Amino acid sequence: MNTKIGLPAVFITAIIVANVTAAKLAYFEIPLLGGVAIPAGFIAFGVAFLASDLMVEVHGREFATTVVNWTVSCLILGYGLIYLAIALPTAPFYQAHAAYATTLGASSNIILASIVTLLLSQHIDVNLFAEIKQRTGDNHRWIRNLMSTSISQAVDTALFITLAFTFFPALTSGDILWGTALATTILGQYVAKVVVAALDTPFFYLATTLNRRTASSANPTSTDIQT
């Protein structure tokens, strides 16, 4: 498999799917936090962070940074195409337009928050992963995978919720999320994302191990470190 094509494809797909599926709110009972509503896109976001870590691990910081920048452009284009589709004249016999528009047509607050958050959190993830890898070399892959994702996901969650449901609504005199409700929402979503990050660690090891074995087969003098 050509990972220079495959990993960016997975990353871009996961980001776009995450933003679309975020229209549904999943509900979980989390110890100490109680019931928390979480956008269903958190699973796809976990896949995206896994793909970005793999891109840095296999192809380096510069490659991953370029993919992130292009993905932001793709997300903007995707939102534009979705709104264009919603704006097209609707067939008189088509009865599902309202549901179609509600599901796909995210508010401007959500769109702006998504774009800003994606740009910042993914660059943090890529650069932090690269810095940790410089310190650990080929060893301790789980440290750079979990640490970079956990920190960048914290920024991602706190910034997105604050921008989408507090900052931007305040600018437009809309309803805002504040105080305990804001903190609980951020913590609940972050816990869910950290769980996904922990669960993706075996897949990170599997993917990197397979890549190293492929590289070793192509270059028999190379060594495969399994930690």
Keywords for this entry:
227 residues, globular, 7 helices, Arp2/3 complex 21 kDa subunit ARPC3, two-stranded antiparallel sheet, mainly alpha, 76% helix, single chain
State the major sheet: 2 strands, antiparallel
Low-confidence stretches: none
Mean pLDDT: 90
Q: Could you state the order of secondary-structure elements as H and E?
A: HEEHHHHHH
Q: What CATH architecture label applies?
A: Orthogonal Bundle
**CATH-derived topology:** Arp2/3 complex 21 kDa subunit ARPC3
Layout of SSEs?
Elements lengths: L2 H19 L3 E6 L3 E6 L2 H18 L1 H27 L9 H8 L3 H29 L4 H31 L7 H40 L9
Antiparallel strand pairs: 1-2
Helix pairs in contact: 1-2, 1-3, 2-3, 2-5, 2-7, 3-5, 5-6, 6-7
3D architecture notes:
The protein is mostly helical and 227 residues long. The chain has one domain: Arp2/3 complex 21 kDa subunit ARPC3 (Orthogonal Bundle), CATH 1.10.1760. The chain contains seven helices and two strands. It has helices spanning 3-21, 42-59, 61-87, 97-104, 108-136, 141-171, 179-218; strands at residues 25-30, 34-39. Strands 1-2 form a two-stranded antiparallel sheet. Strand 1 (25-30) and strand 2 form a beta hairpin. The longest helix has 40 residues, at 179-218. The protein is globular and about 65 Å long. It starts with a helix and ends in a 9-residue tail after the last helix. 30% of the residues are buried. The mean pLDDT is 90.
